[in-house]
Design brief:
The chain has 191 residues and is an all-alpha fold. It has one domain (6-154, 163-187). 76% of the residues lie in helices and 0% in strands. The chain has helices at residues 10-40, 46-73, 81-85, 94-116, 122-132, 135-146, 153-187. The longest helix is centred in the C-terminal third of the chain and has 35 residues, at 153-187. The radius of gyration is 18 Å and the shape is globular. The N and C termini lie far apart (46 Å).
Length: 191
């Protein structure tokens, strides 16, 4: 066992690992979603792009659920279900934890409606998906403010690399701008 981990509870190590990995997966969801939207204009098969976007979202949520479940069993700072699911109810760094909680509540409706959507539900999905865009900056702020490893060199590298991927995706999507929105309207439902 590395010396840096001696005396650190296993749950705390796994909480940190699942939190960071969940953030990386969410970053991949956002970056791929933006890239897939730009690729759609170049004739890339949208079904494959959407499948990967949904799979990455499910992976991110799975890691997030693991992160939250581990908080329930942590011996150093245990959380209750209410403290995890209700913003500002956490005893430890309430604002920082609330940012993560709100990000969670922004992702779940888009994920659920994405699986249930049909032509009739598309309008609801589109609204939920629009709200889900706010999850990434909130999750990033949660990582920086609540993450005990956030300012380590390796963690800063992850944050900078992930942020660069999302910003690059935003720039690519902005470059497609009006053409992309026009193409989505013709398809009768976008993603």
């Amino acid at each position: 066992m590395p010396e840096a981990l001696e005396g650190v509870p296993w749950s705390w190590t796994l909480i940190r690992a699942t939190g960071i990995t969940a953030w990386c997966a969410l970053t991949a969801v956002v970056a791929w979603g933006l890239a897939a939207a730009a690729l759609r204009l170049r004739g890339a098969p949208p079904a494959r792009a959407v499948w990967l976007h949904r799979w990455l979202t499910t992976l991110a949520l799975g890691l997030l659920f693991a992160h939250m479940a581990l908080l329930l069993v942590d011996s150093f700072q245990p959380f209750s279900v209410v403290e995890i699911l209700v913003p500002l109810a956490a005893p430890w760094r309430p604002f920082a934890v609330a940012l993560g909680t709100v990000a969670f509540w922004l992702i779940v409706p888009a994920w659920l409606l994405g699986r249930l959507r049909g032509r009739r539900r598309y309008r609801w999905f589109k609204r939920a998906h629009g709200l889900a865009y706010a999850a990434w900056p909130l999750a990033t702020a949660h990582y920086v403010l609540a993450g005990t490893d956030a300012v380590t060199p390796w963690s800063l590298g992850i944050l900078i690399g992930g942020t660069a991927a999302v910003v690059g995706g935003l720039l690519a999507r902005a470059r497609c701008g009006p053409r992309l929105h026009h193409a989505e309207g013709r398809q009768g439902g976008g993603k």
